[in-house]
Amino acid sequence: MRDWGESLIQWLPEGTVWFDRPLREDTTFRIGGCARLSVGVHAKDHLIEVVHQAIREGFPWFLLGGGSNVLFSDRGFDGVVILNRLDDLRLTSQDRIETGAGLPLIDFVRFAEKNGLSGAEDLAGIPGSVGGAIVGNAGAFGRNIGEILEYVDLISEDGTVSRMVPDDLEFDYRESKLKYSQDVVISAGFKLTQGNPPLIEKRIEEILALRAGKHPAKGVATAGSFFKNLPPEKPGDRRVAAGLILDRAGAIGLSVGDAAVFEKHANIVVNRGAATAQDVLELTSIMKRIAFESAGVALEEEVRRIGFTEDELAATEIVRAGNR
Q1: CA 159/CA 1 separation, integer angstroms
Q2: Among the three residues 51, 84, 117, which one is the final residue of a domain in this structure?
Q3: Do 166 and 269 share a domain, yes or no?
Q4: Domain tally, the chain
Q5: pLDDT tens digits, 284-324
Q6: Between the CA of residue 231 and those of 32, 241, 249, 292, 297, what are the distances in Å?
Q7: Residues 99, 19 share a domain
């Protein structure tokens, strides 16, 4: 792989290829061992070529956008981590926007606001990139990014480039088929609606203020909400917040090493400085156990866990009999 990495250095811009780069430098959790090879990609053609080469060479690879919503193991990643930095952003019509997959999600939200377009407001404050948000069907307040998505351009597992529409992506709550494939989002198109600029701005500022009151401050090391919310108790209701279940179960105040439950939100784990991935696995396993003992529910991770063995992940599971 080092020979392949050396060949990348010959045609990629200087300072965009690294050997044994610590994954904590590229993730919001600031946890994880080293990636055997890391490649920062800022151009569409470069992204396509790097993915094609990884496929041809048979190297394990993982695409990383904003670095949120992911936990890498302390062993790191024995393959290629491709850092997607495609941040193109443009209006394609009066009510349509196209973005690069590596664009920070908040930049997309603010661009829509600037152009008087409504539909993206509820995504304000969600960390990460546009591509990552699509893969995980990110959302808040009962809305998901898949609802405003018009198309995505992808590099498929066989290396071909194609365009897909939302129906192709099998969106569900915090899910899409992209989570379980090697397809890579290059860019995305969104269909929004003409709105009232002052009202759009007001909604965004309300959401940011709400998040600031219960989420960690910018710069605090966290992956975001760790567990998915639960299905509604009856049709028409909103999902049951995992944070509420954990709060009632007494999760706030729990810690393992430097991994701790955030004091204002029981579904957020923070790295207080030197947390390891093992600390997080142990802490979140405890959180799952007390939620089950208290409310009879088996929480499911929203954060993607990469580089762990099946046995390590199995050790975090709880008995699901009686789960309601």
Answers
A1: 19
A2: 84
A3: no
A4: 3
A5: 999 999 999 999 999 999 999 999 999 999 988 874 433 33
A6: 31, 9, 18, 15, 11
A7: no
Does residue 168 sit in helix, strand or coil? helix
207 in any annotated domain? no
Place of tokens 């989570």: 179
- Identify residue 146 by its one-letter amino acid code: G
For the chain, the straight-line distance linking the first and the last C-alpha, in angstroms and rounded, comes to: 47
Same structural domain, 166 and 104? yes
Low-confidence ranges of the chain (pLDDT < 50): 319-324
Distance CA 312, CA 279 (A): 12
Is 319 inside any structural domain? Answer: no
Angle between helices 44-57 and 2-11 (to 10 degrees): 160
Tokens of 240: 């049951």
Q: Beta-carbon neighbour count of residue 150 at 10 Å?
A: 15
**CATH number for 25:** 3.30.43.10
Query: Cβ contacts of residue 141 below 8 Å, gap of 6+?
Result: 122, 207
Cα–Cα dist 79/246, whole Å? 36
The reported pLDDT for the residue numbered 47 is: 94
How confident is the model at residue 2, as a pLDDT? 80
- State which of 50, 84, 118 marks the end of a domain: 84
Q: What's the domain range around 306?
A: 218-314
Beta carbons of 180 and 145 less than 8 angstroms apart: no
What residues contact 6, with CB distance under 8 A and at least 6 apart?
none
Is residue 11 packed enough to be buried (19+ CB in 10 Å), middle (13-18) or exposed (0-12)? Answer: exposed
How are beta strands 193-194 and 184-191 bridged, if at all? unpaired
- Residues classed as catalytic: 174, 225, 302
Q: Is residue 288 part of a domain?
A: yes
Angstrom distance (rounded) from CA 12 to CA 42 = 9
